[in-house]
Design a protein that fits this description.
Length: 474
């Protein structure tokens, strides 16, 4: 490669940086090198197959256009995967450009400004991690009142360095679907593997079980266990799907080993540890001993920020996609369930705009997203949630409510919890009895009738029950 070719490449990079923005350029183009130009073909190289595929599919036409603006004779771009050693021709070209040290320092600075997400994904999956979505970074996470605490804690977990005291361990996030659990967990993984000195492994519960079973079959279970316990930050998603006594025992051993060794554990599930009834009591206790944070429902203001951010992201690849502010406000106001429904609504509008050439109007939006607008049904209350709220209110433990204890400070809260379970859920008396430590249905019936009788006589109890009912139905 000649010095003239190198100067052209510098100008092309300047155009790319202007067109795609600093963040995207730092993530995807800083590890793209020019190898040479010959017969109208620009030969370039990247360090991984993933990065090659991503650049070809997402930015191939833009890269070619920038080169053709610089050199009208360029007809094609060839990208290959290079070896770990930088080609001598590139080093020579930097020297011929007049300031080899300055050029190399600029190259290093470009790489330091933002970790290339593609290579992180490739490396992470190469040592057995679950697939990562390159969009799920801290930079793309929209923060609101409902998720600010979880976001701040995740940031601190991701920013920690090896050898520093672990503050939140384990860090446990729970919520319903589509509210950002997986986004936060993958953001921790990207941030930890991209710029820190710790090895971060993201696994779904299903992948954890698959890895353990495969290791048993291959008679490499010891090596599997040791590899997990050598991780600096273990991130487990969808813990509610962890099934089987042997799986739970292995997870318990891994959890204890990592925490005792001062390694970070991050877990996400659809309910708090106390409600993970399928898990062993010791595991639930260990999980509850860390920082447990709930991601709340998305408010309308936050939903609006999310759809604005999604539209901005889509416009990077589909510049003509335009959603008027009233339509954005309509989607944020009416599509209320979760972030995935919001993204689905925008995907439908994009399809109509791209394939049918339709402008995005309020009429189009109302037609396309009507099945995503769900009527506001009364909140479904779970017996486990009733037990948790009642236990907190009366300053007893949930295990007390399920136990055989007959002391007055436990009997009354237990009866209140049974009464609320009967009045706020569709569960039968036998089912409620089973959920309260395997009691008979006649015990539940007695509790319900007892509380109904006292509500008309005891004003303090009536206030307590009314307050508990409102809290459960919020």
């Amino acid at each position: 490669m000649t010095s003239l070719d190198h100067e052209r490449w510098m100008r092309v990079k300047g155009r790319l940086r202007t067109e795609v923005g600093e963040e995207i350029f730092s993530s995807w183009f800083t590890r793209l090198d020019l190898d040479g130009i010959e017969n109208g073909s620009v030969r370039m190289s990247v360090p991984t197959r993933f990065l090659k595929s991503w650049l070809q599919t997402q930015y191939g036409s833009r890269l070619l256009s920038c080169w053709q603006t610089e050199d009208g004779d360029v007809r094609r771009i060839d990208i290959r995967v290079r070896s770990a050693v930088r080609p001598p021709a590139v080093e020579k070209a930097c020297a011929l450009a007049g300031d080899a040290a300055g050029s190399n320092n600029a190259h290093v600075a470009d790489r330091a400004r933002g970790a290339a997400i593609g290579p992180i994904i490739s490396a992470h999956e190469s040592f057995g991690g679950s697939p990562l979505d390159q969009r799920l970074t801290f930079e793309n996470f929209i923060v609101g009142r409902c998720n600010a605490l979880a976001h701040a804690a995740a940031r601190q977990v991701a920013a920690a360095r090896r050898g520093e005291p672990v503050v939140f361990n384990p860090f446990y996030v729970h919520s319903g679907v589509g509210l950002g659990k997986t986004h936060l967990l993958q953001a921790v993984t990207f941030a930890g593997n991209g710029g820190g000195d710790r090895k971060v492994l993201y696994l779904t519960a299903e992948r954890f079980m698959y890895g353990f079973v495969s290791a048993l079959r291959a008679q490499t279970a010891i090596a599997f266990k040791e590899s997990l316990r050598g991780i600096d930050v273990l991130v487990i998603d969808d813990l509610q799907f962890l099934q089987g006594k042997s799986m739970q025992a292995e997870f318990s051993h891994t959890l204890n080993s990592l925490i005792d060794a001062g390694r970070q554990v991050v877990v996400a599930a659809d309910r708090p540890p106390a409600d993970m009834e399928s898990l062993d009591e010791r595991v639930r206790s260990r999980l509850a001993g860390g920082l447990v944070v709930e991601l709340g429902a998305l408010g309308e203001d936050l939903r609006l920020e999310i759809v604005k951010a999604r539209v901005a992201a889509v416009r990077q690849y589909h510049g003509s996609f335009d959603v008027p502010p009233p339509v954005l406000a309509y989607i944020a106001r009416c599509v209320t369930q979760n972030g995935r429904d919001l993204e689905g609504a925008l995907t439908r509008l994009l399809a109509q705009s791209k394939f049918n050439g339709q402008a995005v109007t309020m009429e189009l939006a109302e037609r396309e997203v009507r099945d995503l607008i769900r009527p506001q049904e009364p909140r479904r209350v779970k017996i486990e949630e009733i037990q948790r709220i009642v236990a907190l209110h009366y300053n007893v433990s949930r295990s007390d409510l399920l136990s055989s204890r007959r002391t007055a400070n436990v009997v009354r809260p237990r009866q209140v919890a049974m009464y609320l379970a009967k009045s706020l859920t569709l569960r039968s008396l036998p089912e409620i009895g089973r959920r309260f430590g395997g009691r008979d249905h006649t015990t539940v019936l007695h509790a319900v009738r007892k509380i109904e009788l006292l509500l008309g006589k005891d004003a303090s109890l009536a206030q307590d029950v009314d307050a508990l009912r409102r809290r459960l139905q919020e």
